[in-house]
Specification:
- The chain has six helices and eleven strands.
- Strands 1, 2, 3, 4, 5, 6 and 7 form a seven-stranded antiparallel beta sheet that branches. A two-stranded antiparallel sheet has the order 8-11. A two-stranded antiparallel sheet has the order 9-10.
- The chain is an alpha+beta fold.
- Helix 3 packs parallel to helix 5 and helix 4 (212-228) crosses helix 6 (259-272).
- The N and C termini lie far apart (65 Å).
- 44% of the residues lie in helices and 19% in strands.
């Protein structure tokens, strides 16, 4: 029996749903496979190019390279010593060498501008006896806790931790730097709860008037730092602290192009919050 027009339309709709569902499943499997392959490539690279137990990076001599602290898509981090001080030795994964060098340059720029509470880059290099790029980073955070873009819970240390988060963010913005991904890259000391901002691969220093892209990045940075990762009962106090801390951006020459974007973002959040 031939299908009526309504039955045929229904058949087409159901078929489309099935096709889209199958396509989504295939895409999900493919995406997971790509991620797995990337991590395998990173593991193979790290295994094939082992960091020497000691050596030199720029003018710094490092030694006692040992425990692997962690790894991501952009590199592998190891524990090491420099002049009796425990540091992080980060080795860039394939195709991310330029990103690591850029991260170092931004961290060094922030340090020169007086920004505190960040993972500093002491040196970056490409040892001639290897085919990888690495950087010496400090300090090594004690018993680090990382929450990503989830609510931060440090017990009775949470409030003081966010007071410091606001201070570091204010220093960073005052120096003219923004980082859309910053809330996702904070390590908290396991004992004191104090935060350290890390990973400046997506950080930028604004040297000209920002447009839609810069507005989006500042909005996202501040919303994530002051709302997304903040426990609900602390949001009003943290926001109030940020308003006070960011008010001085107008007086910083380096924040000339950042200040208007921050002001607009804060106003937008204030209009929406209910404290």
């Amino acid at each position: 029996m031939p299908l009526s027009s309504s039955s045929y339309s229904c058949f087409l709709r159901r078929s489309s749903v099935v096709v889209l569902t199958v396509a989504a499943a295939i895409w999900s499997v493919s995406a997971n496979r790509l991620v797995e392959e990337a991590f395998l490539e990173l593991e193979e690279h790290a295994a094939a190019q082992l960091v020497p137990e000691s050596g030199k990076c720029g003018e710094l001599e490092f030694s006692s390279v040992g425990k692997k602290l962690g790894q991501g898509m952009e590199g592998v981090a190891y524990k090491a010593d420099v002049a009796g001080k425990t540091v992080v030795l980060k080795v860039a994964s394939p195709k991310h060498e330029k990103s690591l060098k850029s991260e170092c340059e931004k961290a060094q720029g922030m340090k020169l501008a007086g920004v505190t509470g960040i993972l500093e880059c002491l040196a970056s290099c490409a040892p001639p006896e290897t085919d990888f790029t690495m950087a010496v980073l400090s300090p090594l955070v004690n018993k680090p806790q990382e929450f990503g873009l989830s609510i931060v819970d440090l017990g009775d240390k949470t409030a003081s931790a966010f007071k410091r988060v606001v201070e570091i963010a204010a220093e960073m913005l005052s120096a003219g730097y923004i980082n859309v991904d910053q809330a996702n890259n904070i390590l908290f000391d396991g004992d004191t709860g104090m935060p350290t901002f890390i990973d400046f691969g997506r950080a930028r220093k604004l040297t000209k008037k920002g447009g839609f892209k810069e507005k989006y990045q500042v909005n996202t940075m501040l919303h994530d730092l002051l709302v997304t990762i903040v426990p609900e009962d602390l949001r009003c106090s943290v926001f109030s602290q940020a308003e006070t801390a960011f008010a001085s951006l107008q007086d910083s020459p380096a924040a000339k192009f950042v200040a208007p974007l921050v002001s607009e973002a804060m106003k937008g959040m204030k209009d929406k919050k209910s404290c």
